[in-house]
Amino acid sequence: MSQVNTNNLKDVLKKYFGFDNFKGDQETIIENVLSGNDAFVLMPTGGGKSLTYQLPSLICEGTAIVISPLIALMKNQVDSMRSFSTDPGIAHFLNSSLTKTMINKVKTDITSGVTKLLYVAPESLTKEENIAFLQTIKISFYAIDEAHCISEWGHDFRPEYRKIRPIVDRIQRAPIMALTATATLKVQHDILKNLGVPEARVFKASFYRSNLYYEIRPKVNAPKQIIKFIKDNSGKSGIIYCLSRKKVEELTETLLINDIKVLAYHAGMDTATRSGNQDKFLMEDVDVIVATIAFGMGIDKPDVRFVIHFDIPKSLEGYYQETGRAGRDGGEGKCITFYSYKDIQKLEKFMQGKPVAEQEIGRQLLLETVAYAESSVCRPKMLLNYFGETLIEPCNNCDNCLNPKPKFEAQPYILTIMNAVEVVSERFKGEHISHILAGDATSAIKSYKHNELEIFGSGKEKDDKFWNAVVRQALIHKLLLKDIENYGLLKFTEKGLEYMKKPFSIIMSDNHNYEESSDDTSGGKIQGGSRVSDEQLFNQLKGLRRKISKKMNVPPFVIFQDPSLEDMSIQYPITIEELQKIVGVGKGKASKYGKEFVALIKTYVEENEIERPQDFVVKSVVKKSGVKVYIIQNIDRKLSLDDIAHAKGFSMQELLSEIEAIIHSGTKLDISYHINHVMEEEQQQDIYAYFAEESETGSIEEAMKELEDEDYTEEDIRLVRIKFMSEMAN
């Protein structure tokens, strides 16, 4: 190995890379490699890992081999390296995307001494012809990039990475550098052990990036929130991560029709399209890329201003690495993640069927993600702690620091959960326990006669969502575990049994509801109060609705339901056209009832000098319009609802939801022919009279309680309510 003094190193740095000084430990790491020593480099994204093997490769005799997991990553790194030199042969990659002619050119440049840096995929490294070729050349050192892929405890485990050391031994021994942006102590140990370099010098940079803003948002109407965020940050570069290819495609389509310059990226695309889209993002032909986690490893774009996670990642390592792609130049970097516990449950389901050991690892990584997402602690503090580093002072640059959530002592609630698990003999899931405590007599609760237990309804002052959040805290604190071999049934841990004897304080955040998830990537409107409505206007609108209902002799909910009034008191529509864009208001309802409502809102806006939100209307990808037309046409033809449902692959419940949406938008549908076929006239009249004379809200749940003595099914009540709403509201 060449011995090079510090002054010469700085000369090389200036000559090839244009920098006057090294950053952090870069210089020491490079000197270590030049001295012929093994190294483990743990440096956060944007810390300058690549330079620690790029620069010594230019100085050392022979060719440095960089083992890298992604073809797209290799291309990006090779292009970057070639930009520092007049000879394009200085860097090459060897992978399955090359033709035979290209491969011959690569080998010629290497044997002639031109190529100082060769990027190889682990799969290519194992090919006999490549092993034979590499045995004939001088290798200066090996750099294993994204080394966390070696570890089963890492967030992106690649079995091929575990074969690297035996292959290296076959080719020729040279110093080994393992590099990664994220590794817990467990992952670090696994990497060093598998590579056979336990004595490697370890270099760890701080994980703290003070320029990054971290925020977790409940996943309520995420597409609309994302569109508004991008439009508020117009012209800035950003990455949006989704867990599935399907979601990438859907969200990209929604952003496109809302005039956002965006492209998709996922492994299901052909190589040319995928790399073309990546290049357009790097060249700023588009502002936003929507991608699976396949995108971003080593993407050297310093001015990514935001990273949005549409889906919560599977591990904190993955999350930290992906968010680290924002603000690599030290400038603004916003990291926003949409979180719903339903997404965690989906990920748990995906793990079923895998080997138990793999499920155990996956479950632990997910629990850590849940703990982070639902915590009220400073987010960088929690992340750094996960990676074995301590942040003394809060960051004052995350949602929890800037908008602290109220906290409360959860010990009595956790003990209530533990007691309930004991009462049902550890044989039920968390959701079932939550329904018991909240006093929800679901069909499952009734079938096990758990509505007759003494604990049934003992926590009814809180809803099942609250109790589900308490269950999650018990899991996070390892007092309970989900039995992965038995459908996720809650079981006590040793720690949990001890806790019941000697409870200790556990603090929970008051904002615990991460269950209301509108996962509709087609856009739509905010429902369920994800923004605060104008209470004064809302009450005035309710008063007007009551007045009109008395004048027309129909229940108030027939005119507009509460979610519609709530949306009006957020959006302030002052024309009939704007009113049609409100939740649950179609053209028919707007023209029939809207005049007085928009007049009231217009007066209210003027009198109170309200600046109406410049909250654009999200254009929706039309997906269900064809289904709606099909339903309307076939109901007009009096086709059986069972046949309509079967033709579209719906359950009857799903079909009724579609019909209800059509009715609420103001379209009249006559389903009397179906109701007459399945119900007696007297039963119909009984339910119809309830909605006409007694119901104030039109709620199905309330109707079920009021009519429970009559033994009507939920489907019966929904059918008659559809008839009633169609006749009275439309």
Number of helices: 34
Across the major sheet, the strand order is 3-4-2-5-6-1-7
Amount of helix: 40-55%
What Rg is obtained from the alpha carbons, in whole angstroms?
A: 31 Å
CATH class group of the largest domain: Alpha Beta
Number of domains: 5
Task: Provide the structure class.
Answer: alpha/beta
Which superfamily, in CATH terms, is the homologous superfamily of the largest domain? Answer: P-loop containing nucleotide triphosphate hydrolases
Q: Tell me, briefly, the overall form.
A: elongated
Portion in beta strands: 5-15%
Question: Could you characterize what this model shows?
Answer:
This protein starts with 5 loop residues before the first helix and ends with a helix. Helices cover 48% and strands 11% of the residues. Helix 18 (411-423) packs across helix 21 (464-476). It contains 34 helices and 17 strands. The model is unreliable at 1-6 and 516-531 (pLDDT under 50). The protein has 730 residues and is an alpha/beta fold. A seven-stranded parallel beta sheet has the order 3-4-2-5-6-1-7, sandwiched between helices.
